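A note from the maintainers: we've had questions about how concatenated examples are separated. There is no special marker in the raw files; a new sequence line simply starts the next protein. For clarity in this README we add a label.
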Amino acid sequence: MKKILITPLDWGLGHATRCIPIIHELSKRGCTVLVAGSGDSLLLLKREFPHLTFFNLPAYAPVYSRKQNMILKIVIQIPKFIATIWKEHLQIERLAEQHNIDFIISDNRYGCWCSKTPSIFITHQLHILMPGRLKWIEPLVGRLNKWLIRKFSHCWIPDYIDEKFRLSGKLSANKEAMLGEVTYIGPLSRFRRADSLQYKYDLVFVLSGPEPQRSIFEEKVCLQLRASSLRYLVIRGVLTNSVSTQENEIAFLDTKDLQAIISQSLMVIARSGYSTIMDLAVLGKKGVLVPTPGQPEQEYLADRWKGLGVFYSASQHDFNLLEALEKSKSYTGLKIDGGQSNQLLSQAVDALLVG
């Protein structure tokens, strides 16, 4: 019986939610799963899997800006992040030895590799985008990204290898085999498409992402929702300090309840994070995507799917709810074969455990 250590990044909840199907796959094979992390991503997995063993890792604790250019704010904090990567690496080395870990699976935590234990790195960003004024350093950032990933034994990409079906577009393209040990394991979602339920809501507003932009977005949209005659529900995406005074606003829902709510909604308004796009695709739901200001990855994904006529997107700054809902009617939404994705993940897990 193999012991597997899962280590999701703590920037938002997406890295944790896409670890959920991996934990299920490993558990089905009788593996002992342990989780190490920090922040809300660790809290989320504790709620989903209270029977597992958990460890705390150093938190990255990024500080974000209220202004548009979030990347510049992040660049200033790079020395702190490098120190965190080094600290978490030392801790992972100790945990692997103390608990006889057979494999480590790290979702975007660059320090969670071990010199004596096979380590898998999960990412959909082989190509990291930079904003306009910092575009010139993209090649340097790309080389650094590859160097860090090569510390790991293997890289798993939660997407399809075929460019025609790839959800993340150029972000996960392994151009000229720049990384050798790469496996595309299919989109990862904690949800599974269920039988059609009777629609209860015109829309569900799912909040996520870093503060203070999360709260700015919440205030802007909720004011418009309360003034409308729409049947709606707000999922605030807050695990701590989660009191809400509004009847149709909920702090947080676990996977089962959130899937039921989304399935009963005609439309979803959410950030354009990659995990959200995978979730919408698996559930076959239509959505309005609003990228976090200053995040080039989310802006790229929103523009990509809008250009393909799949998901309507709008900026947070001048977001108009009724206008967005009207324009979204001409967009198709996205449906993928969840069974095929499950098969790709299953094959990757089999190769890991047998190999």
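[label: protein 2]
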Amino acid sequence: MYTYSVSKRAKTVAQPRGGFLPLSLFTRYSFEDGLALKEGENIPAGITGQAVDYMSRFVSGLVSPQESFNISLLGAIRAGKGQRGMELLGQIKGLDDSSLVSACKLASYDTFYRVPGSVFSSEPEPNSATLFNLRLMVTRMVSFLAEYGPITAEGFTMEGGYTDIVSSGDGDFLTENTLWDIKTSKKTPTSKDTLQLLMYYIMGKHSWNSDFNSIQNIGIMNPRLNSVWLLDANTISTSLIQQVSRDVIGY
């Protein structure tokens, strides 16, 4: 049987009209810092998202650069570029241009770990607009983590909660009572995003990860849109939890 990661399953499973968990159920909170992102980014959206995520963990002081970029480093090894990965890691010091360029290049190796069999092409070369936007999004993430934290877990996994259908997947952040997923899309969260978040919640509750014992809320943070969407998980119907548990995850 083919097995999925959490994100892959959320993207491919059929959902009812409006999605299993409509965004309209969430409360949106928007922030204002008087700054606007620039047009003209030139690197793939997936790499942008990973770079923002990993740099936010590092700059916030949660983990070291090596811990934050661990999956990227493992991907570089699988790509036969382990030494290059360590070279890029050594250039990541903060939010200066050189660090952000190296972060993007290192994050591009994620795919070799997450998608075995990937073929190396070339490292991305972020332009000035991309670097400006990365710096602003990471800065917004640091402010968000300071306000909504403290963070109790980052890059969390859900051992004991995986199934024959969904056998992998790692989430972004947990605070004392909230599970957070980070998105950097130009659009508001989709039904795929809310399903992914719900899957993390259900699988976390099934897992051996004790950090989930106190989780009561689920939320999405998008530093590009400078907004969060938050939902009290206790308001989600038991029938929906059971349906997603059975039909999507495979419990």
